Amino acid sequence: MQLREIESNTGGSFHAYVATPAAGSGPGLVVIQEIFGINSVMRNIADAYAAAGYVAVVPDLFWRQEPGIELSSEVAADWPQALALYQNFDEDKGVEDLRDTLKYLRNLPECTGKAGTVGFCLGGKLAYLMATRSDAECNVSYYGVGIENNLHESGNIQKPLILHLAEQDQFVPPEVQGQIQAGVKDNPLVTVYSYPGVDHAFGRVGGKAYVAAAAELAESRTLALFRESLG
């Protein structure tokens, strides 16, 4: 587990946290951050995927605003800064950074070649955009915020995509979830799972919204897709 530097095709570079499996190599996963930067939650997620056999890379997507920022969802004073970073975030440039990360990951000697993405919250939206704008072998979105604004891109999806929706998501109300489900229903590569009675971030271990049963079910579905698509 270490920080590495990735060159941006738009100029400059950004850091990424890299976790490798004990075996030394495996398929790749781009793990896409929430609005709190590469914090302990994201590092732990990457470490867990490495333990499952994947080379997991978490890029710093806020590097243009504040490189190396690390905030906590459980600290009230961190929320205004996290929301400001989110509001000023350029999604298109973020996707470009993720495409650069995907290329970097595939070229790592530890990576066996195939690579997918998995993202949470802001990262959930970006995982959807990676499904529409990249050639990642598969993509998984956890409670992505703002997907409804890019449903017109759903026809571009050519690799498997899972959308995990929290039925009681305070940031993605029921009518928006209905729009998302309707917007992707004609694409057989997209699978939508809705988890009843849970709120946004139900999969964030240690968070107030964490629900173990829903998180474990979602993760089992995610890992099944990774095994099928990445080997």
UniProtKB/TrEMBL annotation:
<feature type="domain" description="Dienelactone hydrolase">
    <location>
        <begin position="14"/>
        <end position="228"/>
    </location>
</feature>
<dbReference type="InterPro" id="IPR002925">
    <property type="entry name" value="Dienelactn_hydro"/>
</dbReference>
<protein>
    <submittedName>
        <fullName>Dienelactone hydrolase family protein</fullName>
    </submittedName>
</protein>
<dbReference type="InterPro" id="IPR051049">
    <property type="entry name" value="Dienelactone_hydrolase-like"/>
</dbReference>
<dbReference type="InterPro" id="IPR029058">
    <property type="entry name" value="AB_hydrolase_fold"/>
</dbReference>
<keyword id="KW-0378">Hydrolase</keyword>
<dbReference type="Pfam" id="PF01738">
    <property type="entry name" value="DLH"/>
</dbReference>
<dbReference type="GO" id="GO:0016787">
    <property type="term" value="F:hydrolase activity"/>
</dbReference>
